[in-house]
Recover the amino acids of this structure.
């Protein structure tokens, strides 16, 4: 058995949970916050039988697509010596999924 830990953008989370559950996968949803954009994201965990791992990962890959987003970044004025920062827009790639697959040595459902 494997444990899938998938960190996805909030925008993709609902669709991914539905897609996994439609195929019979149990999913636990956790609200989390990313470090780079400091924006909300969702961490999903799911225990999956070894023979269904590729199916579950395929659903994650199909559902969670990368896309570009514009966010504000701050640049120091005058080399930052005065402590003044001016926000300016930058384009970043968001979405997709960061997935960890862990080996499960024991599973109990009590």
């Amino acid at each position: 058995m494997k444990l899938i830990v998938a960190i996805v953008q909030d925008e993709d989370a609902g669709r991914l949970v539905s897609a996994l559950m439609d195929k019979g996968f149990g999913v636990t949803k956790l609200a989390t916050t990313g470090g780079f954009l400091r924006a909300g994201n969702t961490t999903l965990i799911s225990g999956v039988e070894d023979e269904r791992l590729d199916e579950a990962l395929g659903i994650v890959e199909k559902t969670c697509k990368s896309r570009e987003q514009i966010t504000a970044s701050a640049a120091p004025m005058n080399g930052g010596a005065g402590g003044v920062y001016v926000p300016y827009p930058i384009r970043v790639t968001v979405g997709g999924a960061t997935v960890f697959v862990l080996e499960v040595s024991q599973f109990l459902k009590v």
Notes: The chain is about 20% helix and 45% strand. The chain has a mean pLDDT of 85.
